[in-house]
Every structure is written in structure tokens, then in C-alpha cells.
Design a protein that fits this description.
The complex is a heterodimer of chains A (271) and B (358). Chain A is built from twelve helices and ten strands. Chain A is of the alpha/beta class. In chain A, helix 7 runs parallel beside helix 8. The radius of gyration of chain B is 21 Å and the shape is globular. Chain B folds into two domains: 38 residues, no CATH class; 223 residues, no CATH class.
Amino acid sequence: MSDALLSAHNLSVRFGGVLAVNNVSFDVQRGEVFTLIGPNGAGKTTVFNLISGIYTPTAGHITYNGQQMASVPPHAVAGLGIARTFQNIELFEHATVLQNLLIGRHTHRQTGLWQEMFFTPQTRAAEIAAREKVEHVIDFLDLQHHRDSMVAGLPYGVRKVVEMARALCTEPQLLLLDEPSSGLNVEETDDMAFWIADIKNVLGITVLMVEHDMSLVSKVSDRVLAMSQGEVLAMGTPSEVQSHPGVIEAYLGTIDDVSSLRRDHAKEQHP
Amino acid sequence: MRFIFKTDYDQDIRLAKHGGHVFWYGLLMVLLLTAPWLIEEYWLAQLTFVMIYSIVGLGLMLLAGFTGLFSIGHAAFLGVGAYTEAVLAAQGWPFPLSLAMSAGLSAAVGAIVGLPALRVKGIYLGIATLSFGFIVEEGLARWESVTGGNAGKHVKAIELLGYEASSNEAFYWICLVVTVVCTLAVLNLLRSATGRAFVAIRDSEISAQSMGIHLARYKTLSFMISAALAGIGGALYAHKLQFISPDQFNFLQSIDLLLMVVIGGLGSIHGAFLGALFLITMPQLISLGKDYLPDAIGQAPGLQAVVYGLVLIGFVMFEPMGLYGRWLKIRTWFQLFPFYRKGMFKRQKSFQKSDRLK
């Protein structure tokens, strides 16, 4: 697997007595959409937080572009070309959409404190250059109408897109999307699928996402990894994973589970 | 209502966004420049105090209003700046150099105080800075060989280019220049990457971090800049009063400073100035009002503290955005007349924020 952008090797995380992630390994290939699915509490978001450096793995390691991630502090992860969104939107509420997106350009800043204090011509040029990059993203995601609105006043669906736009402004190689469709209606989810496909095909960005909406997952994902209780259940194309008996069991339970729930008199009537 | 047709990115970067800004701020500058001829000496002195407090307010605003870190010990930085200036002026340093040293030393102290800010937040940071304020006040009182202890210290008049700026007018000019430079520096910071990083930290640390912002570095930086501005304010304060003692930089002074930015309106540069204006004019208004009140109230000790307290409670309850927020509402009312609605500035209930990562 020479073309892997990100690979996780035997990752495990333990919080006290809880083994949140247990021996998980996977490779994300360059230019694919790779999705993590699984029931609540399966450890998907924990994997995300491991990649963004918020947690450190108890065992195992992550390599990105051939580099070990263990020694990278969380704030330096963005500089490597990994951007992320959050499950419960974490935008800068009391700033405009434009300012939020400009913050996304932070890793590309070229000016120092003193230059900025005196607002030298270089600073002005850098600001305009940053703005141009941001405008590309605004055009890409159709956010023109919301450019100068405060985030605090935007509807939920737009915030989701703004958060994705902010991640794109860092010009990442790998985009981590934590439940991009949560809280969106059907149309907005369709738009999201369209944009994720565009991000992959037009911008050539590799996407790693956590998602529950299986229609979105099967529409955009190249490969799917199913997790349950911190362990890998299955990996493969969306249809393969969906038909995998272990996955069905994790979501729906086994026949035995169901029969044990059945009331006793029902068993007697239908032996 | 003014609609601006934007054709250039520069229009969003410029400080004056439209002709109205140019006109009103130009007029303000003209008035400030001609103030020594327009108003009496007493009011000129008050205006000088407003500017000194504005500089300190700018610093605290940057810290509390834009980075979201509260300091209840800001008078300590004021004190460090004031004593540095007093000592250096006595040794005959030229004013620009000693002013820079006051700012620099305050910033260095600010960096040290910023250390707990990397670990604690909210009320705990407040307590950490509060105790720091006590330490500095105590230090100023005990280090008698340098500070003169509780007996206080005289401050020499400013010497600039061989002239002694001892007159009120000369000192006013100096304060005006320093205020304008400090304001421009802060505005410039806020419209560039550093200022945006501060705002990002204020609104969501976790996502600021994932955008590549080094939290520790920017929090320390914010403390340093804030302390430096307080130090500059302190240096001017020392020259203005000509006599400083540790009890001028006590806990109550810190509270006054915090009161100033909260009443002015957190998160706006205008707020620092409006707050300073409030802080200086309020005692005057109270003493004017005293004559019209019955003796039992008018002559009661602690009247000022009561009024301050009531005003602060009033603002927190009815106008959390402070004086600047009130001004924005009034302006919008006129702009939209007659279409202003009552709920226009009401914050939408914010969506549940993720707290699992905190």
C-alpha cells in the first residue's frame, strides 16, 4: 500500500477502564472517500480525535504521508494538511462568515506581529491574497449570500457548510468530516453528497468521514469501515459492508437476542 | 441605511469603510487637536485621563473582549508601568525610551501572568490574576529602595527633545499621540491574522487549535500586548498624577478597569473609549448631583460605589453589549426609521456546543 495517505496501525485507546478503540488498523488511499460507520459509542469520533492529535493513542500509531503523528502537537496537525469539522459545529460564533474562513487561512500566514501592528504593505498584500483564496472557497460552496453575516444568526444547515468551507480554506490534503449530514434535511444532505463528491473530484482532496446516513455513505464513499465497540467489524465497498453479517448484527442484533426479548406467552402460542 | 457597493477587497481591509467614517473620525480628530483652545484647563485634564484610561482599556479589551480571558488584576500592570516610568524618568531617560521600557517590562510580567491562563479558564483565571494583583501591590509597597514604599514616589515631568513638557497642554498632546498610535496598532492587529486568532480562541478553543492556532502562544501574546498597553497607560498615569503610591494600583483599580470595558461593551474598540469616558465623567456627575440630593443620601459615604454597582448591574441585565451596543441600537433605529423592531439585536439561542472535548 504505497499510496496510502494516512494509515492507522493497531490503534488502541483506553480511558480508565473503557477500551474506546481496540486494535484498529486501516489505510486511507490518496483521493478516495473513506467512511467510518458504526453504532453510537463505537469509537469513530475517538479515531478522529486521535488523528487530530487531541488524544494520544495508548498503543499503536498513525502515519500521515509517511510521517509519524505521535510527535505532532494538535495545533501543528493543520499545518500538515489535515483539516477537520466537528460533530456539533464549532464555528467562531461572534464573527462573520468571512472572518471564520479567513481564520482557516491561519496556517498560511506569512506576516509577523510587528508587520501586522503597523499594517505594512506586505500585510495588506497578504490579506488580499488570503481573501482571494477564501473567495474561491466561497464560490465553490455557494456561500456568497452569507459572506458578511454573523455565524450566530445563521441556520444550522448553512453553518455546516460554513464549517466545511473553513476546513477547505486551510487547503488540506486530507479532510476529516465528523457527521457532515447530522441535523440536515433531505435536500441539504443531497447537497452535502454533491459537495463531498466535488471536493474529491474537483479539488482532489482525500476525505475521511464519520457518517450515519447510509444513503449518503453509499452515494459518496469509495470504501467503508464499520466499527462496533471500538473494534473493526468489516471493511470494503459500501454494499459489501452493508451486507456483512457482523455489521447487520451490530445494528440490528442477532436472532438469539430478539428471541430472548420475546414474551413468554408468545413463545408458548407459537413454539 | 447605507449600502456600500464593493468592488475591491481593499474596501473590506480599510479602516474607514466609507465617507461617513472619514468625516466623523476626521471631525473628532480636529476637535481633539483643538481641544486645548476650546475647553478649560480642568476639563482638559479630565480629557487627558479619559485618554490614559482608554489606552489601558484597549489592552483589557483585547484580552477580555477579543481573546476571552478575564483579568481581575490589571491594575498590577498599570502599577508596573507607572513605577518603571517613575524610576527611569528619575534617572533621566528620554521619554520615548522609558515609555518603551515601561511597556516592555509590563509585557514581560504579562507573559508570566499569562502562564496560568494556559491551564485555567473563566473564574479560575480571574482568581489567579486577582491574587497576582495583590502580589504586585504588596511588592510595590515593600520594595522600598526602588518604589519608596507606602510613602509614595514623586514623578518628574516628561522631558522630550530637551524641553520639559510640564504644562497641561504639552502633556495632553503627548497623550493624544500615544492614544492614536496605540489605537491604530490594536485596530491593525484585529484586522490581520493575529487578531483573528484571538477571536478564534475566544469563540472556540478546540476548533482554533484544529485550524492550526497555537493556543499557548496566542494566549501569552494576548496577555503580553494587553499588559504592554496597561504599562503605557500606567507610565502616562504616573506623569499625570506626578505622585504615585501602591494603593493607586490596588484591587479597586482593577475592578474599575474591568467595569470600564464591560460597561463600554465587550468586544468593541469603541467600548474601551466609551467605558473610559464613563469612568471619568461618572464621579463628576455624581458630585454635581450631590447638591440636589437630600443630605442623608448626598453626603453618605460610599455613594459612588453604590452608583457604580447599580450601573454595572443595570448594564449586565439590560444591555450586555454595553454603551457601544446601546449606541448601535440607537443608530440602527435612525437608519431603519420607522422599521426598527424590538428583537433585532436579540441573540438567537445558540446551538448546543460540544463539551466532550473540553
